[in-house]
Amino acid sequence: MSPYHHGDLRRAILTAALDVIATDGPSALSLRDLARRAGVSHAAPAHHFRDRTGLLTAIAAEGHGLLAEALARATDLRDAGVRYVRFARRHPAHFQVMFTPGLLHTDDLELTTAQALSRTALTDAIAAATPPAPTAAATPPAPTGDDTDARLTRIAVWSLAHGFATLLLDHNLDGLLGDDDPEEVLRRLPMSLFPSG
Questions:
Q1: Whether pLDDT at 84 is above 60
Q2: Whole-angstrom distance, CA of residue 61 vs CA of residue 14
Q3: Which of 9, 145, 154, 174 has its CA 20 to 30 A from that of 163?
Q4: pLDDT digits (tens, 9 = 90+) for 87-131
């Protein structure tokens, strides 16, 4: 076995794992195989990730952080949906792992923090695109309707963007899209869910 020369073993293992997942899916992931690829002892990956689930959890946490960064730059709600799909296309291995709780240590602090960041970024994009409900001075505000509407909007927006991204990555839209750019197709969807800012 050749000595390890990468300088950042944790990053090297994450990168190798992402390559395996993108090619063969998360079920093909093996710490022993990743150690062989990196040219280190089979115990070296466990030093950074404890086990396979720890590695997948680190990938999911990284993915949520990247998604939060992408969504934070959205100019409006439609753009947030496009950025979500763009993220999935650029980071398909992250995307495969991020939303599969059975693969992850769901109580991991790094993961829950990153999930909160991506959730907040999506919620902020929705809030920025949703005009506040008009209220008359003499009329008391509705007790919970606005919160319910915002929550349902978030669910609808996420469902549309996530569903589109999933269908796209699984090549289920190939025949429907033809030569059209998927991001432009998503931008053109006739959905009042995605008002321009």
A1: yes
A2: 12
A3: 145
A4: 999 999 999 999 999 999 999 999 999 999 999 998 888 777 655
